[in-house]
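Task: sequence in, structure out. Protein: Two component sigma54 specific Fis family transcriptional regulator.
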Amino acid sequence: MSRVLVIDDEESVLRAVKRRLERGGYAVETAGSAADGVGMIHDAEPAFDVIVTDMSMDTADSGLQVLHAATARDMFSEVIVMTAYGNVANAVECMRRGAFDYIEKNSPDVDVYEVIAEKVDSALMRRRRDIRTVDLWEALKGQANP
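Result:
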């Protein structure tokens, strides 16, 4: 079962995202702050497959701190950044640093929890593909250099 960590300082958002992802068959853990989330990322064994994090919690760049911790822990972890206050500069910075996607929580006429579930599905597909590619490359490299 794929493991997802959801980090947000709004309890209602944590509950809603967790409920939606559990309906999709994911094992979901939650953290109410960036510091708690980073601690869970470091302590997780095995690493989380996907991390969904709010951009602004303890500080305005909490999401970037989570992104850094996740990619430092496991280069294949996929991070989806959510924000209530979307702006192009934040989105570009998150993507530049390796986020899988950047989602605005307050998009009118959009079921953001459904969008998050779809993004998690896509992120997991990319994670599996990337891991499989490295495994195949290492197997071919091993055959070439016995």
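The mean pLDDT is 91.
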